[in-house]
Amino acid sequence: MYIPQKQLENLKQMIIPGKVMVIYGARRVGKTTLLNKFLEDKKFSDVLFVNGDDIAARQYLESQSINKLKDFVGGHRYLVIDEAQYVKHIGLNLKLIVDHIPEIQVIATGSSSFDLAKDIGEPLTGRKMVLQMLPLSQMELSQIEKRHETEANLESRIIYGSYPEIVMIADNKRRQDYLKEIVSSYLFKDILMFEGIQHSDKLLRLLQLLAFQIGKEISLMEIGKQLGMSKNTVERYIDLLEKVFVVFRRGGFSRNLRKEITKNQRCFFYDNGIRNALINNFNPINLRNDIGELWENYIQCERLKYHEYLRQYTRSYFWRTYDKKKLIWLKS
Questions:
Q1: Could you give phi then psi for residue 60, rounded to 5 degrees?
Q2: Which residues form the AAA+ ATPase domain (predicted)?
Q3: What gap in Å lies between CA 71 and CA 184, rounded to an integer?
Q4: So what CATH class is 6-133?
Q5: Which residues contact 102 (CB under 8 A, 6 or more apart)?
Q6: Which is nearest to 87 in space by CA: 118, 132, 66?
């Protein structure tokens, strides 16, 4: 069953010749499904769909030769590059394509933003549009379920998250196996491949520490002491985890009043199921002592998806004072 994706509407509205449409998102959140749905009513001969890990395709896409790129694209109207972060100099080559083949419409997807964003940043200044894919939102799920079904499924969403395949799986054991497979096979793949991090065990321990502290203010210094790492290394690792769409941070809001706490940040996971898989806790809510934290993480994610999919670009914060007054979500 296909669940209508909100970003499909945005993609159809935003894609134009002369611009590169960049779609970011974690592995398995539905980027390829989105592309296939977008292309399903296009003529087969109009579409050139390639994968960034295809060696033959990379020989052209890394060439920086206008003639080779024109030969590769041919007479196609759409060029789609899935997992474009594997292509060296992708930004410069896409710039050559949109500059010299102005009628073509280009889509590039990436499961990590640090390498792809670095490559496309300067070359595609003024030549790109960006969408972010996230696990399924309640906005999307409401299109296929009634209110009583949403209420019945809420505990499952809080425990197992809302990756597309998770939503389709009815058996909890299979859900757990699926989430553990994502954690073991996909979660660190881009970081370890592109950043050359040697201590994957410390990266896992960092994620587990963050998983136990969702919704709480984190101290990079304290985390570093627990892991035997410097504060700067902890900051770098969390930054990388943000760029592969595992976690995101919220800073404190300030009106420059002395009683407000602003220096610390809070860290959240893009998906509750991934968080629970990291600490291997899939207990039902009546057997948990972290239901408040899970609920806050779920709300943070849903608000993030809501603003992203409606193209509402806001800054989000938490707010707390020294006398314990607080708001978990504040936007400006």
A1: -85, -45
A2: 17-140
A3: 40
A4: alpha beta
A5: 17, 18
A6: 118
pLDDT, position 45? 94
| Interacting residues of 250 by C-beta distance below 8 A, sequence separation 6+ | 265, 266, 267, 268, 300, 316, 317, 318
Distances 118 to 35, 74, 123 between C-alpha atoms, Å = 23, 28, 10
User: Which sign does the torsion angle of CA 136, 137, 140, 146 carry?
Assistant: positive
Give 262: exposed, middle or buried? Use CB within 10 Å, 0-12, 13-18, 19+. Answer: middle
Q: Which residue has the higher pLDDT, 258 or 74?
A: 74
pLDDT (0 to 100) of residue 220: 92
pLDDT for 20 beyond 90: yes
- Reading the block at residue 190, the tokens are 């881009």
Gap between the Cα atoms of 186 and 191, Å rounded: 10
Rounded to an integer, what distance in angstroms lies between the CA atom of residue 61 and that of residue 81?
10
Q: Please count the other Cβ atoms lying within 10 Å of the Cβ belonging to residue 25.
A: 22
**Rounded distance between C-alpha atoms, residue 316 and residue 248, angstroms:** 11
Structure tokens at 145: 């379920």
Determine the average pLDDT of the residues in 73-92: 91
For helices 113-120 and 90-100, give the axis angle rounded to 10 degrees.
Answer: 50
**Rounded-to-integer distance, Cα 130 and Cα 183, Å:** 26
Say what the pLDDT of residue 224 is: 95
Predicted TM-score of the model (pTM): 0.88
More confident residue, 111 or 198: 111
Q: Which of 110, 43, 101, 20 has its CA nearest to residue 68?
A: 101
**What are the extents of the domains in the chain?**
6-133, 139-331
- The burial class, CB within 10 Å (0-12 / 13-18 / 19+), for 127 is middle
Query: Could you give the 3-state DSSP secondary structure of residue 17?
Result: coil
**pLDDT tens, position by position, 219-233:** 999 999 999 999 999
b/e per residue, 212-227, with b = 16+ CB within 10 A? Answer: ebbbeebebeebbeeb
